[in-house]
Amino acid sequence: MNLDYSPVLGESGQPAGVLAIVVETSERVLAERRIAQEGERLREMFEQAPGIMAMLRGPDHVYELVNAAQLEHVGGRDLIGKPVRKALPELEGQGIIELLDEVYATGKPYVGHHRPVKVQQQAGAAPETRYVDFVYQQGCTGQGHRHLCPGA
Question: How much is the pTM?
């Protein structure tokens, strides 16, 4: 419940009583809990997905969320909060970042099949070629543009 108390002044200007306004919020609280539970369930599904998944934010494609498969694919590197160009510099010149730029700019999804991608899976090691199927698609939320990027 939301409670709001206000003094009620008498004719003399002194407090003569209290006005209490009570608003029941059960439905709203239950709805917020349900939304939070659904969000957590989706986060768990995202994390446990066997495919490589990441959510990127903004024109610099900053990693916002990644799953365990994505981290394993890039040798456990810390990606969160970093732009793709800095987090995975070996992608430069492979056309991957340009595809992200295009999807971000146009909103048109891109589907890649059996595309070779060179990724450094261990610090100091030479990048290895992996063949991946992937989808880049743009989503839009109240917090700005996001991409869902399996395979990057």
Answer: 0.68
pLDDT digit string, tens, across residues 105-128: 998 999 999 999 999 888 788 899
Does an H or E element contain 132, and which?
Answer: strand 128-141
Q: Would you call 54 exposed, middle or buried from its count of C-beta atoms within 10 A (0-12, 13-18, 19+)?
A: buried
Measure CA 45 to chain center. Answer: 13
CA angle, 79 then 147 then 136, to 5°: 105
Map tokens 């969320």 to a residue: 65
Helices (H) and strands (E) in the chain, counts: 4, 7
Residue type, 123: A
CA 102/CA 111 separation, integer angstroms: 12
- Specify the domain boundaries for CATH 3.30.450.20 within the chain: 50-152
CA 123, CA 93: separation in Å to the nearest integer?
20
The residues, any chain, with a CB within 8 Å of residue 148's CB and separated by 6 or more, are 53, 54, 55, 135, 136, 137, 139
The residue written with tokens 């694919």 in the block is 73
Task: Report whether CATH 3.30.450.20 matches the domain 50-152.
Answer: yes
